[in-house]
Amino acid sequence: MFVAIGFMLAGGVIGYLLRKKEFKHISKVITGLIWLLLFILGIEVGGNPRIVSGLTAMGVEALIITVAAVIGSAVAALLLWRQIGKKKGHEG
Fold first, then answer.
1. What is residue 90's predicted lDDT score, i.e. its pLDDT?
2. Cβ(77)–Cβ(71) under 8 Å?
3. H/E run at residue 27
4. Given 3-state DSSP classes, what are the helix, strand and coil percentages for the chain, each rounded to the nearest 5?
5. Cα(81)–Cα(70) distance, rounded to whole angstroms?
6. Could you read off the pLDDT of 22-79 as tens digits, one per residue?
7. Whole-angstrom distance, CA of residue 85 vs CA of residue 54
8. What backbone torsions phi and psi does residue 11 show, to the nearest 5 degrees?
9. pLDDT band for position 92 (50/70/90)?
10. CA angle 86-88-92, nearest 5°?
11. Distance from first CA to last CA of the chain, Å, rounded?
């Protein structure tokens, strides 16, 4: 973990030192590296029988969490909308 933090700090320092230099293709390089990391992560997940056997349970849990988050956000937005309407003198 300290290695990862060290790399992040080193990248921040190098980025700060090179902030005036323009890197034209850096976003494409970063995007490519992210795709590569996701691909490697997929290989690791697909090759781990414990993860693959638990995908159904994880999928159901993820669905429940997602539905609960959406409903909670909608209720919070509705309550906020009503509160704002009361302050402006409008009901609804």
1. 60
2. no
3. helix 26-46
4. 80, 0, 20
5. 16
6. 888 889 999 999 999 999 999 999 999 988 888 888 889 999 999 999 999 999 999 9
7. 46
8. -65, -40
9. low
10. 45
11. 51
